[in-house]
Amino acid sequence: QVQVEESGGGSVQAGGSLSVTCVVSPDTARVWSMGWFRQIPGKEREAVATSNTGTGETYYADSVKGRFTLSEDATKRTLQMNNLKPDDTAMYYCAVDSRKRPMGWVPKQYSDLRYWGQGTQVTVSS
After folding, report:
1. What CA dihedral angle connects 63, 9, 119 and 35, to 10 degrees?
2. What is the pLDDT of residues 57-75, one digit of tens each?
3. Residue 36 to residue 44: CA distance in whole angstroms
């Protein structure tokens, strides 16, 4: 079945950069939508950057617009995070879904995506 694995998390100082990567197995799995979410202990999981990959439409949370960029190639999906802030500290999760979605739809909540990774920790110090 479909497996999702994140990597690339770590600790950086405010203003620094990190990229986190998502690999989906098997490579032949159909990914019609995907997203990066983050969660702080005691708070709800929130969408950071997501995509309806079938239509090319994307969504970025207001708090990360202009700093985070979503990209993908034949083997992986990457979230580039620049000018990191302490408020970006969280566990970052990648998720994908095999269901085709219509134009105008992007994933924005936990229940929108079926297959989830275990997360990678990002810590930003002042």
Report:
1. 40
2. 999 999 999 999 999 988 8
3. 14
- Taking the mean position of all CA atoms in its chain, how far away is CA 72? 11
Strand partners, 118: none
CA 1 to chain CA centroid, nearest Å? 20
Dist. CA 21–CA 36, nearest whole Å: 10
Positive or negative, the CA dihedral 55, 39, 3, 17 is: positive
Contact 73, 107 (CB under 8 A): no
**What average pLDDT is seen over the chain?**
97
25 sits in which H/E element = strand 18-25
Instruction: Answer left, alpha or beta for residue 119, where phi above 0 means left and psi between -120 and 50 means alpha.
Output: left
